[in-house]
Design brief:
- The protein is mainly α and about 575 residues long.
- It has 24 helices and two strands.
- Helix 8 packs parallel to helix 21.
């Protein structure tokens, strides 16, 4: 732990001139960050590797909006056409921003890896917080695992599409896509375990590729491709789903735009590895949504103006309309290079999916919310990463990918939780935040450095070794974190504007969940049925059943670690 003489006493010129490299880059704040975590009942176990720029890159890479807008182009295009994309995308962007502003506020109140389930536990009425927190923990954990499975298959099948583009005689098989998805996951495991220390540097590099790749592809596509008229882009509609009205087609296809903004809560689940998370996590969330929304809308408009022959795009042998659009506009060589850029960025996004899912799963296991929690919550003593949780969240998608060999439809049904599960996990804490807000139960923010309490932190960002008498190597005690006086964090949307935004976010989450369960076309049959409602319902029923059949015995809410119980609940 840094001695008091190592820490600048104030903002004077002499202190700045005498500051070391570590002090300038935030290491002197490790004790403060560890104390903030201790107030939430947790000791600093993971290493704080991320500053603002690296977590901003991490968040941008995971959201990858302009890349996912290309990959998910078909859904909104088939149900609504160019007009649904041109107008629907900015509506989804601003509406999603409303939700993420609420998440940013809660991340500032309680910056912790558990995110949604922890917020529910501190915001919900005492009678419901235990059950609702448990349900939210399962929804969030499984939704992120499903997102990892989705991302791995997406990357693998885009690689297949690129092979088809360059080798027309290639016959794609589902098991090829599964093997490629496994290769994607293998790289995720390597980066998140063997070279975990370089992850922040990697995310900064990918942020650069994310921005430069966008500029390069946009300019190339717009310059070389034939252009459609503004009327075709902004006012042409399609109803390939055969819905009774064009308006209904727009609403069904709108989910395609929503899906491009799912996952901006990733920074939340890395909070215990971020310096000054009460400010840096909200800033990363909001700036990510602004940057990705603007680049995503620009890319959508560029693709729509450069669409060319619609039939060739929809019926592309590559399986991905954006590859065909690249090919129609720039030829095989140009399409290959641009598609490789998209693959690299989406592959790196999947690496972030694995990191996010593992931290969420580890955090929930730390509070005994999962089976085998004693094993899953273990952290590697050298790398300070939850290697068992990483194994759990990567092996599960590998097994799910086996379903893809037999039926891509069945696989898509199983992983459909990625949108509905995450939005359900957003809805619950946002609703409880609104209740606390309108009833005036959250006090104004007070800056506090917690004088008189020192946390056992090393300068590498981890806590000192716990007392060996503490069971299970600083595991949680049997003490449940009691309800504290809630205070706003240093980042929030103030006043009436915050309340209105919070209310809109709740309504929007319900709206998304409703339309996410609709099938993509009519007449509905076993092949085109949207089984998302069945999968989401099954997860909820499973979580409820497990809670009442023994889960509530282990899970009693967020627990207090032995090392910090004096900070979280006061001295005995």
């Amino acid at each position: 732990m840094a001695s008091s003489s190592d820490t600048p006493k104030g903002p004077g010129t002499g202190d700045v001139l005498n500051a070391t490299f570590d002090e300038i880059h935030g290491s002197t704040y490790l004790e403060r960050d560890a104390h903030g975590l201790a107030r939430l009942g947790k000791s600093q176990v993971l290493k704080r590797r991320f500053g603002f720029f690296s977590v901003f890159g991490f968040s941008c890479c995971i959201l990858a909006t302009w890349e996912s807008a290309l990959a998910l182009f078909t859904e909104a295009f088939a149900n609504g056409g160019p007009a649904a994309l041109a107008w629907g995308f900015p509506i989804a962007w601003l509406s999603s921003l409303s939700v993420y502003l609420c998440l940013a506020e809660m991340a500032s109140i309680a910056p912790i890896s558990g995110g949604q389930y922890f917020w529910v536990a501190i915001l919900a009425p005492p009678k419901y917080k235990r059950f609702c927190g448990y349900l939210t923990g399962w929804l969030t954990s499984l939704a992120w695992i499903a997102t990892l499975a989705t991302g791995s298959i997406f990357t693998g099948t885009i690689v297949q599409g690129l092979i088809i583009l360059n080798y027309p005689d290639y016959e794609p098989k589902n098991f090829h896509g599964t093997f490629l998805a496994w290769a994607v996951i293998a790289v995720c495991v390597f980066v998140n375990t063997v070279v975990a220390g370089v992850l922040p540097v990697l995310e900064g590099l990918i942020l650069l590729i994310h921005v430069l790749g966008f500029i390069a592809i946009l300019i190339t596509l717009v310059y070389l491709s034939p252009h459609s008229s503004a009327e075709d882009v902004f006012f042409r509609s399609l109803n390939e789903g055969n819905w009774p009205s064009q308006g209904l087609s727009y609403l069904v296809g709108f989910i395609g735009n929503v899906a491009t903004f799912v996952g901006a809560d990733a920074a939340v689940h890395m909070a215990e590895e971020i310096e000054n998370p009460a400010m840096n996590v909200p800033r990363a969330i909001v700036t990510t949504v602004f940057l990705n929304g603007s680049t995503g809308w620009a890319m959508v408009l560029a693709v729509l103006f450069c669409l060319g022959d619609i039939d060739s795009v929809i019926d592309s042998p590559t399986g991905f309309p954006f590859i065909q659009i690249f090919y129609n506009g720039t030829g095989k060589a140009g399409a290959t290079v641009m598609t490789v850029v998209v693959i690299v960025i989406i592959w790196c996004a999947v690496i972030g999916f694995a990191a996010t899912a593992s931290r969420m799963t580890w955090s929930f296991a730390r509070d005994r919310g999962l089976p085998f929690h004693k094993i899953i919550r273990k952290v590697h003593p050298r790398s300070r990463v939850p290697v068992v949780a990483i194994a759990v969240v990567t092996i599960t998608p590998c097994l799910l990918n086996l379903i893809y060999i037999g039926s891509s439809t069945a696989f898509n049904d199983v992983i459909s939780l990625s949108v509905s599960g995450l939005y359900a996990s957003y809805l619950l804490p946002c609703s409880f935040l609104l209740w606390r807000r309108v009833t005036g139960q959250i006090k104004p923010y007070r800056s506090s450095e917690a004088p008189g309490t020192e946390m056992p932190t090393r300068r590498d960002g981890t806590t000192s070794t716990p007392d060996q008498s503490a069971p299970e190597d600083n595991s949680a005690s049997d003490i449940v974190l009691e309800e504290q006086i809630l205070e706003w964090g240093p980042w929030r949307v103030p006043g009436v504007l915050g309340t209105l935004n919070n209310a809109f976010a709740c309504v929007y989450c319900v709206w998304v969940l409703f339309w996410d369960f609709w099938p993509p076309s009519t007449p509905v049959n076993a092949e085109n049925m949207n089984y998302s409602v069945l999968v989401t319902g099954a997860v909820i029923i499973f979580a409820v059943a497990r809670y009442f059949l023994g889960g509530k015995v282990d899970y009693r809410g967020p627990l207090v670690d032995y090392d910090v119980k004096n900070v979280a609940i006061g001295p005995n």
